[in-house]
Amino acid sequence: MSFSEEPVVRVSNASIFQEDHTVLSEIDFTIDKGEFVYLIGRTGSGKSSLLKTLYADLPLRLGHAEVVGYNVSNIKSKEVPFLRRKIGIIFQDFELFYDRSVAENLTFVMKATGWKDPAKMKNRIAEVLMRVGLGAISAKMPHQLSGGEQQRVVIARAMINEPQILFADEPTGNLDPDVSDGILKLFEEINNSGTSVLMATHNHKFIEKFPHRVLKCEKGRVLDSSKEKFELSGWY
Ligand SMILES: Nc1ncnc2c1ncn2[C@@H]1O[C@H](COP(=O)(O)OP(=O)(O)OP(=O)(O)O)[C@@H](O)[C@H]1O
C-alpha cells in the first residue's frame, strides 16, 4: 500500500476534555488526502478544542488520533514542531507580528522550520504570496494591508512548507462577507491542488456555495455527513 493512500487524519474512539469537563466523546472519523471538510456547531460545542487536539495544542487523554503520520495521543513535545511542519494552522485573529514586514513574518516561520538559504527563502516567499493572490507586498507592514490581505498573508505563511492539511479555525470570522467569499475561494483553490482542509466555520453560506462533507459538534458528539443525515441549519 502506498503511503499516499493513508488518511491524513484518523481519529478513533477519542474523547476531548477541557480541564475536568468532557467536551466531546466517542469521536471517530478520517480525513483523506485532498478532502475538504467543514467543522460546524454552536458556540462552545467543541470545534476549537477538536482542532487544538489535532494540531497537538490540547493533549489527547483518551482514544487515538493520528495526523499526517504522527500519533498525537502520545506525541512528545520535541516532536510537535515536526508535526507542525506538515500541517498549516490558520486562526480568526491574524496573529501576524505587526512590527515586522510581510517578508519578515514569513521568514520568521521559515527559519524556525529549518530554512537557511536566503535566495531560496526569497523565492519561496514570492511563490506563496503569488499563490494566495498577493503581488509584490513583501516589504509592506501588516497594518498597511486590509483584513482580507492580512488573512492571505497568514494563509501564505501556513503554506510555506507545503502542508498536507490546513486546519482553519473560523478563518473569516473577522472579515466582511465579500472578503470572506474571496478567502473561501482561496481555500478551494488550495484544496483543488491537493491540500486537505478542515475548516471550523459559523458561516452556513459557505456550505451552500461550496458544498463539502460536514462534521458537526453537537451534544458532546461529532456527527459526520458522510455517515448520517443531520440538520445543517440551527447551529450558527
Ligand atoms: N482553555 C480552556 N479552559 C477551560 N475550558 C475551556 C477552554 N477552552 C474552551 N473551554 C470550554 O470547552 C468547551 C468547548 O469550547 P470550544 O472553544 O472548543 O468551542 P467552539 O465550538 O470552538 O466554540 P466557538 O464557536 O465559540 O469558537 C466550552 O464549554 C468552553 O467553555
UniProtKB/TrEMBL annotation:
One of its GO terms (molecular function) is transmembrane transporter activity. Pfam families: ABC_tran (PF00005). Belongs to the ABC transporter superfamily. Part of the ABC transporter FtsEX involved in cellular division. Important for assembly or stability of the septal ring. InterPro entries: AAA+_ATPase, ABC_transporter-like_ATP-bd, ABC_transporter-like_CS, ABC_transpr_LolD-like, P-loop_NTPase. The keyword Transcription does not apply. GO terms for biological process: cell division. It comes from the Bacteria. Residues 9-236 form the ABC transporter domain. One of its GO terms (cellular component) is plasma membrane. This is Cell division ATP-binding protein FtsE. It comes from Ekhidna lutea. The keyword Zinc does not apply. Keywords: ATP-binding, Cell cycle, Cell division, Nucleotide-binding.
